[in-house]
Specification:
five-stranded mixed beta sheet, 33 strands, about 950 residues, four-stranded antiparallel beta sheet, alpha+beta, zinc-finger, Methylamine Dehydrogenase, Chain H, flat
Length: about 950
């Protein structure tokens, strides 16, 4: 092992003396929870903070502290020491547990932690012997397992909640050697693996393993050679380490593991962050040496000559050595950057790589070391080996860093290798693909180019950016290579772009589209439909029909026809390819609607058809008509080609243009009606769009139909008014004003206003209108006269008979109202007299029979002011109201209450006013019932505020 290289990966953090407060000899120590605990031969335990600064101390035992251990899960300190012997039969050695979170006053100036338990280790069943080793395992708070090794080959175990003394004791026997020096337990170590608990035990003659998870622990001998000194440790992989003069041995559950031949007496062993710590006596020099071994990389990370070491422990991320003279030495590990800088200065790159990999550094740090190693090799012009290092950095090192180096060195072979690896790992960008293809071209390596582009292993599409490869191949006129890449990668749009734009092979493009799946074919037709319909219109339309209908393929089993149709592309998706071919679009949509009746895109299809039907002219100039024919002649001034019945025909002036327009409008009106059946509330097209199209193209028939279906009757009669069609106007009002059929009788008022402002003689029409106004009582006579007075061509004779009839009718109504008033006044006067009589005169009750049971009235009896009398027994508990009159009285009260409630709801009042033909009658009815006049100020204010906003409706 003397050939191992030595490095200074550790450095001295601080050194000094233990605090003067610690006067006794240090016999044991423990660390955890950010502090160090020292036990001395005077029975004291001292706690040191960071930097080994004295915090406080207390008397743990009266004589000596032999062993101690600080728990990690709870802030407890477990000690074993000697106290005063109570009786000759009892042992002076005891175990104590201190709660470091609870302090009890000991004097005026000092305090000590609370001792929560004291146990005698030795009993009659467990005879006293010298304790040689001590170890505590926290199983699950508050359970502890304490193993105490003795010089007679026994191990006393105490298990349970020791603080509450709920424990069990048992003994493990290792050796029954007559010579105690050969049977002493020199080391213990717990190994926890899930639910499995095992205990390593070392004697000078053997290494043993106890399975503690069984009911009675079983022993297994791992080795027939042990260790006579207390130099044991546990690794972070639960391996047990034993130090012997000739070597250091590692043990696992199945026996001895690796062995490292470090010579010298091993005084202390430890494990720190994957490093092996060892204090041994160097036989050649006679000095004590402290070494830190990196076993993975086979190097000595730190070595220092020290005095006699008393204790060794690890805390605060440092290694702490306490020497016999009470001096301390704290050693800490350098950061990774410092260690790597040290190695880089010595050009020890392989050691640096091994170091970062063994210490499980992140991939970025490893890549940085590899980069520096590559730079070192590059500076020595060892390009092949340098590239090997750079390839290992792929994914962490920016590729441009490597590419730039090898472009400058003109090492195109190395660069090609790097780019290939970059593509294999899927980390290549578009620029890397372009560069690699250019490298192949410059090297004229057609074989590699074919292998890269046309590889048959099916992985090629994952190696590079497909679009970049296609674009580079197209630019270099490698169309076949580009098509191969596009086809294998499933980039159908690029495959067709090459066929159509570069090669002009339209037939092949159509065949390729036909072979694609439904969704893929739809996408490609959307992209290149304009070119296809220009050069192969009939075939393109045929493909579209197959795509959009069930002719594409038969539905699979279990798939309904409607579900299958919903999976097909919609004709709306292909409207853009017909942008210069409106006649072809019209024919395509007509064919589709005749074949598919329940398409999910019915609304959009009908909207498009309506736009085509209502347009005045389907032929419009377009830039697509300017082209070059196959002979190279300029077609700029030739007529535009459209598609008709699948054939391209030249467009000429349509002499029957008006006839075609009327025919289309007829189809459009038919579509408007058929797509809005009576059972549907909304049509199968956009109503607003349809109205706009009719308005823009002056299609009155469509407008009239739409307005009537939407119940916009005022707009319907407005259409007749615009063209002054008086007969049609009156006929329309007769049809649309029928309230029984959902009409609007107020249309007659609009007609009257129209004729009143017409400015010409229309007596005949006005007389007819007045007939319907009078029949339905639509307008008051005064409003009729005011409206007709605006027409200077109308005379009073037009309204003479109407006014006479209305006046006679009003007179009759006035007489009826007067008679009703007199009747109500007479009834009111009678009621007032009756009320006055009840208040001033006595009532004589002369009934001799009970009103309820009709038997002779006897005492006790109850008489009511309504002249009804009852036996008291007939009334029961209800003596305050007459059973005969109470229902009527309650009805009156309920009516009054409902009227008062109505007065608190102004919205209902204004709604009645607005919906009534005669709003004044509603207001008068409210006043007559006494609702408005008897409301509170708040309610009156609410009505007044509401009337301010609705005053125009009275």
């Amino acid at each position: 092992m003397y050939q191992w290289r030595k490095f200074e990966f550790f450095e001295e953090k601080f050194s000094g003396k233990v605090a003067d407060d610690i006067t006794g000899k240090i016999q044991c120590c423990s660390s955890g929870k950010g502090r160090v605990v020292l036990g001395c031969d005077d029975g004291s335990a001292s706690l040191l903070d960071r930097g080994l600064k004295f915090n406080y101390g207390f008397q743990a035992h009266s004589s000596s502290v032999l062993f101690l251990q600080q728990l990690k899960q709870r802030n407890f300190l477990v000690t074993v020491g000697e106290d005063e012997q109570i009786s000759p039969q009892s042992s002076a050695v005891c175990l104590k547990i201190f709660d470091l979170d609870k302090m009890e006053p000991e004097g005026t100036s000092t305090s000590s932690p609370d001792c929560i338990q004291i146990l005698r280790i030795f009993t009659n069943q467990f005879p006293e012997a010298k304790i040689t080793s001590f170890l505590v395992l926290e199983e699950a708070p508050p359970l502890l397992l304490i193993a105490i090794g003795l010089d007679n080959g026994s191990i006393y175990c105490i298990q349970g909640d020791i603080a509450r003394e709920r424990i069990k004791r048992f003994k493990l026997q290792v050796d029954n050697h007559s010579d105690k020096s050969q049977a002493s337990i020199t080391g213990l170590g717990f190994r926890v693996d899930g639910q499995m608990l095992q205990l390593f035990a070392v004697t000078p003659n053997s290494v043993n393993l106890f399975n503690m998870h069984t009911q009675s622990p079983t022993r297994q001998t791992l080795d027939q050679i042990g260790s006579s000194v207390t130099s044991v440790a546990m690794t972070d992989r639960s391996e047990f380490i034993i130090g012997r003069p000739e070597a250091i041995y590692f043990y696992e559950v199945d026996g001895r593991g690796p062995c490292w031949a470090f010579e010298g007496e091993k005084k202390f062993l430890g494990w720190f962050r994957g490093y092996l710590l060892c204090v041994f006596a160097d036989q050649r020099t006679g000095n004590n040496t402290f070494n830190v071994y990196d076993l993975k990389n086979r190097l000595i990370a730190h070595s220092i000559v020290v005095k006699e070491v008393s204790q060794m422990l690890c805390e605060w991320g440092n290694i702490i050595l306490i020497l016999e003279d009470k001096s301390t030495l704290c050693i800490g590990e350098k950061d990774m950057e410092s260690k790597l800088d040290m190695l880089f200065k010595k050009n020890l790159y392989t050691v640096a790589i091994n170091l970062v990999q063994s210490q499980q550094a992140d991939a970025a740090a490893t890549a940085e070391v590899l980069r520096k190693y590559g730079d070192h090799l590059y500076s020595k012009q060892d390009f092949d080996e340098a590239m090997a290092q750079y390839i290992d950095t792929i994914g962490h090192l920016e590729p441009s860093y490597v590419i730039q180096k090898f472009l400058d060195a003109q090492r195109i072979h190395n660069l090609t290798n790097y780019l290939e690896k970059l593509h294999e790992k899927g980390l290549a960008s578009k620029d890397h693909t372009t560069l690699l293809l250019n490298c192949y071209t410059k090297l004229k390596d057609v074989e590699k180019l074919n292998e890269f582009i046309k590889s048959e292993d099916g992985v090629g599409e994952q190696k590079f950016d497909v679009e970049t490869a296609i674009r580079v191949c197209r630019a270099a006129n490698y169309h076949e290579h580009a098509m191969s890449v596009a086809k294998k990668a499933g980039r159908h749009e690029w495959y067709l772009k090459i066929l159509l734009e570069d090669l002009g092979r339209y037939e092949e493009a159509l065949q390729y589209i036909s072979s694609l799946e439904l969704s893929q074919a739809g996408v490609t037709v959307k992209e290149y439909g304009k070119i296809l319909i220009e050069h192969k219109p009939a075939e393109t339309v045929e493909i579209l029909m197959r795509l959009c209908t069930e002719e594409t393929e038969l539905p699979k089993k279990g798939t309904s026809s409607s579900a299958f149709i919903s999976m097909l592309p919609s004709p709306i998706d292909f409207l853009n390819i017909f942008v210069h071919y409106p006649q072809a679009l019209l024919e395509f949509l007509e064919k589709y609607t005749s074949k598919v009746k329940d398409s999910s895109a019915q609304v959009e299809i009908h909207n498009t058809l309506l736009e085509l039907y209502f347009s005045n002219d389907l032929d419009f100039p377009s830039i697509s008509q300017y082209n070059i024919d196959e002979s190279g002649n300029d077609l700029a001034h030739k007529p535009l080609k459209t598609v008709s019945n699948g054939r391209a025909i030249p467009v000429k002036k349509d002499v029957n243009n008006e006839k075609g327009r009327q025919e289309r409008r007829g189809k459009g009106l038919t579509l408007l009606k058929s797509a809005w059946p009576s059972e549907l509330e909304q049509p199968l097209y956009d109503v607003d769009l349809a109205i706009i199209l009719c308005e823009m193209n002056d299609f009155k028939e469509g407008l009239l139909f739409l307005y009537e279906k939407m119940k916009l009757y005022k707009e319907v009669i407005a259409c007749y008014m615009q063209v002054h069609d008086h007969e049609g106007l009156i006929a329309c009002c007769k049809r649309l004003s029928d309230l029984g059929k959902g009409g609007d009788s107020s249309l007659w008022a609009d007609l009257l206003k129209y004729f009143g402002e017409l400015g010409e003689d229309c007596s005949k029409e006005v007389k007819e209108i007045l007939t319907y106004i009078e029949r339905d009582d639509i307008l008051p006579p005064i409003v009729v006269l005011q409206t007709l007075a605006k027409n200077p061509c109308l005379t009073l004779s037009v309204t003479k008979d109407y006014i006479a009839r209305k006046l006679e009718r009003e007179s009759q109504l006035i007489d009826e109202d007067r008679r009703a008033i007199e009747k109500y006044q007479e009834a009111s006067s009678t009621m007032r007299k009756e009320i006055q009589d009840l208040r001033t005169n006595a009532r004589i009750f002369q009934l001799s029979k009970c009103t309820a049971c009709t038997f002779t009235l006897d005492l006790p009896a109850v008489h009511f002011m309504c002249m009804h009398s009852f036996h008291q027994r007939c009334l029961g508990d209800n003596e305050k109201e007459c059973p005969e009159c109470a229902p009527e009285y309650r009805a009156v009260l309920e009516t009054k209450r409902s009227l008062e409630q109505s007065s608190k709801n102004p919205d209902q009042f204004f709604q009645l006013v607005q919906s009534s033909k005669d709003g004044f009658s509603v207001i008068a009815d409210y006043f007559g019932k006494g609702i408005i006049s008897k409301t509170s100020n708040g309610h009156a204010e609410a009505l007044r505020s509401g009337s301010a906003s609705s005053g125009n409706d009275f």
